[in-house]
Design brief:
Distance between the termini: 14 Å
Number of strands: 8
Strand content: 15-25%
Shape: globular
Largest sheet: 8 strands, parallel
Structural class: alpha/beta
Order of helices and strands: HEHEHEHEHEHEHEHEH
Radius of gyration: 17 Å
Helix content: 25-40%
Strand order of the largest sheet: 7-6-5-4-3-2-1-8
Length: about 220
């Protein structure tokens, strides 16, 4: 087995105080998750509904699962009964569907709005203007079964660390502006989810308090 425990310990030791680790376990067997769990890790991220469902069934029930991938609207109903957070809400339509499905099972789901800043068309998410339009519309304020807890984003997949830092800094400024305008005094609006295995050090320097790290802990994907 890849040395999950050693890697996890090294990653945790490198994180500044107050930064949460979401261990990205997608494409990795449950044995890897069990190894991390045995060392105290409880927060894991998955991006495929069927894989997540099976792991939820097979693994301890106190694991908090974050859905981190692009979520199709018609898949929301399958994960809403048990997921801890949906990190990548990229449209009002998806937010509406999560609220609807959560109401059916009597839950309130924490979500993050996915921000698209990266210089790549392949990434999902809303532009800063689109995020602000969604919040200006205020329909979300009537949704009793979702709670917007912050923003998530991915930086461009490039070697230019200054560019990556600028993108994270843009996200951090937008978070602060949104917090002041729409969520002033709301303690739950606090999540700044950016930074992955190759750039989480930059992310932490630019305000991130939640990093999504997979490869650095679990190694290359298994399946």
């Amino acid at each position: 087995m890849y040395d999950v425990v050693k890697n996890l310990e090294e990653v945790l030791a490198s994180l500044p105080p107050g930064v949460q680790l979401v261990a990205i376990s997608k494409y990795h067997p449950k044995e890897y998750i069990e190894a991390a769990y045995a060392k105290g890790q409880r927060l894991f991220g998955e991006s495929h509904e069927q894989e997540l469902r099976q792991k939820h069934i097979d693994l301890p029930k106190d694991i908090r699962w974050h859905f981190i991938g692009h979520l199709q609207t018609n898949k929301a109903k399958y994960i809403v009964p048990y997921v801890s957070m949906i990190e990548a809400v990229d449209s009002l339509k998806l937010l509406q569907e999560i609220n609807k499905q959560a109401a059916k099972v009597g839950r309130t789901i924490d979500v993050l709005l996915e921000l698209h800043i990266a210089q790549e068309d392949t990434k999902y998410g809303m532009t800063p203007d689109e995020v602000c339009r969604l919040l200006d519309d205020e329909e979300w304020r009537q949704m009793e079964n979702v709670r917007i807890c912050g923003l998530m984003m991915m930086a461009s997949n490039i070697d230019d660390r200054q560019q990556i830092a600028r993108e994270f800094a843009t996200a951090n400024k937008l978070f602060n502006d949104i917090k002041a305008k729409y969520f002033k005094g709301d303690e739950y609006f606090r999540c700044k989810s950016w930074g992955m295995s190759d750039d989480y050090d930059i992310a932490c320097a630019e305000g991130s308090n939640m990093v999504r790290i997979g490869t650095k802990i679990f190694g290359p994907r298994i399946y």
